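Entry:
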Amino acid sequence: MNDSTGLCLIATTKKQQAKENLGFGIIHAQPTVLKVFEIVKLTSHLNVFASQVELDSYLIGIQQKMMAEGEENSA
C-alpha cells in the first residue's frame, strides 16, 4: 500500500512557509526519496541540498545578494 501523507505534509509546509515569506528546504535526502520527488514533480518546487556544506553555500549566496541590494539602495 502506498501512502502520500509525507508528500502532502511537505507540500503543505512549503506552501505555509511561502505565505510567510520563509524558506523551506530538505537536506540529506535518500536517493529513493529524491526519485519520488522527481516522479511527482516536486523537485522544481523544493530546495533540496545534498549536504550541509551545499546548504551553507546557498544561504551565503542569498545573504551576499541581500547585502549587495541593500548597498545599492543606500547609495
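The longest strand covers residues 25-27.
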